[in-house]
């Protein structure tokens, strides 16, 4: 029976998968180097790159090495970087004072990168977590049991102006305070920076997967205290409609690009946001997503390259136009070879 059995089918979808050539011809999604934004960490001094143990292949660079890394990325076709400072613990205080120091690390880093590579798009976070001793994204209220929304936004506006002055292309408010996109837009415009854009972390979830990043920027100090949780400002992972509400508010307030973060666990949100707005949508494949893939690969449980590529393809397919990913350089290199 089995030998002569033939189904009478007009549609055989496998025909399109028969050869590598046919598969490539009908591929619906492609990840290109220019879709990727590389997050990079910067430190002061002249020391060697400091590896981050939970993020294999990622290191904190001094400014000189950072410029070199940016140069390599740009040559590989990665057109944008997102810079994060790691401050010395003794420079941090409750109010995140260093964020408004005109000579603070991130501003010097931006100037150096833009001087060397004026065409590279440079993005900087507008949030206080690298600067506060408690590791929160804003300043605390009088009772010290929550972040003070409006006082924090006032500081963010000043930070954004300093970053614009240093030459960034986009500021990226990442703290999820209410009204910060509109306030930052107004502040930038009033200071004459109408060309500096806003990449808004619009739907940023209170995720367990930020751990390795907090090691990288040293913002995990709040661990073990009652102030550990960022749940009063970052979104509840249970919520979908709320993400659309946040995104639409940010668009109304003047965001140029909206972002969903994390990416891989929130593909449904990326798709809904892509369908709801006309502006570019970014997604941040965060430190824990990167660490997870590397950890499994190290144990021999997953193939690093295949799981990496599939993770990015899924994020793009879900609707992200741009992906922030720690894999940016490796992927750009691989694309260059293929
Ligand atoms: C906070 C900020 C976070 C990340 C970037 N900016 C998360 C947080 O500590 O709450 C996370 C990025 C990552 O995990 O890769 N302003």
In short:
By secondary structure, the protein is an alpha/beta fold.
Which SSEs are present, and which pair or pack?
Elements: H1 20-25, E1 36-42, E2 50-51, E3 59-61, H2 63-75, E4 80-85, H3 105-116, E5 121-126, H4 149-166, E6 170-173, H5 180-190, E7 197-204, H6 211-217, H7 241-253, E8 257-261, H8 267-276, E9 281-285, H9 287-298, H10 304-318, E10 322-325, H11 328-337
Parallel strand pairs: 1-3, 1-4, 1-10, 4-5, 5-6, 6-7, 7-8, 8-9, 9-10
Antiparallel strand pairs: 2-3
Helix pairs in contact: 2-3, 4-5, 7-8, 8-10
CATH superfamily: Aldolase class I
Helix content: 25-40%
Number of domains: 1
The appropriate CATH architecture is: Alpha-Beta Barrel
- Measured distance between first and last alpha carbons: 45 Å
CATH class: Alpha Beta
Radius of gyration: 21 Å
Main-sheet strand order equals: 1-4-5-6-7-8-9-10
CATH topology: TIM Barrel
Q: Which ions and ligands are bound to the chains?
A: ligand PBG
Tell me the number of helical segments per DSSP (H or I, 4 or more residues long).
11
- How would you sum up the major sheet? 8 strands, parallel, barrel
Model regions low in confidence, pLDDT < 50 over at least 5 residues: 222-227
């Amino acid at each position: 029976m089995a030998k002569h059995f033939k189904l009478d089918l007009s549609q055989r979808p496998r025909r399109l998968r028969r050869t590598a050539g046919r598969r490539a011809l009908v591929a619906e999604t492609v990840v290109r180097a220019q879709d990727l934004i590389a997050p990079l960490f910067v430190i002061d001094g002249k020391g060697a790159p400091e590896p981050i143990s939970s993020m294999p292949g990622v290191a904190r660079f001094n400014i000189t090495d950072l410029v070199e890394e940016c140069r390599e990325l740009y040559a590989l076709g990665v057109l944008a970087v997102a810079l994060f400072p790691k401050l010395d613990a003794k420079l941090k205080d409750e109010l995140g004072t260093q964020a408004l120091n005109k000579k603070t690390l991130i501003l010097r880093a931006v100037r150096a990168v833009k001087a060397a590579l004026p065409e590279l798009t440079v993005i900087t976070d507008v949030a206080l977590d690298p600067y506060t001793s408690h590791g929160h994204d804003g300043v605390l209220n009088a009772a010290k049991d929550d972040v003070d929304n409006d006082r924090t936004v006032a500081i963010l506006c000043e930070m954004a102006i300093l970053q614009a002055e240093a030459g960034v292309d986009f500021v990226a408010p990442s703290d999820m305070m209410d009204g910060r996109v509109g306030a930052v837009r107004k502040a930038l415009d009033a200071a004459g920076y109408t060309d500096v854009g806003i990449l808004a972390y619009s739907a940023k979830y209170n995720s367990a997967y930020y751990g390795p990043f907090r090691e990288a920027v040293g913002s995990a100090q709040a661990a073990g205290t009652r102030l550990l949780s960022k749940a009063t400002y970052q979104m509840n992972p249970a919520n979908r409609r709320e993400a659309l509400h946040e995104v639409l508010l940010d668009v109304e307030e003047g965001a140029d690009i909206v972002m969903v973060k994390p990416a891989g666990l929130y593909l449904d949100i990326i798709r809904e946001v892509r369908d709801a707005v006309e502006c570019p949508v970014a997604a941040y494949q965060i430190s824990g997503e990167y660490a997870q893939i590397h950890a499994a690969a190290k144990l021999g449980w997953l193939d690093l390259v295949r799981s990496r590529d599939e993770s990015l393809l899924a994020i793009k397919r879900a609707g992200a136009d741009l992906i922030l990913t720690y894999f940016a350089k490796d992927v750009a290199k691989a694309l260059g070879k293929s």
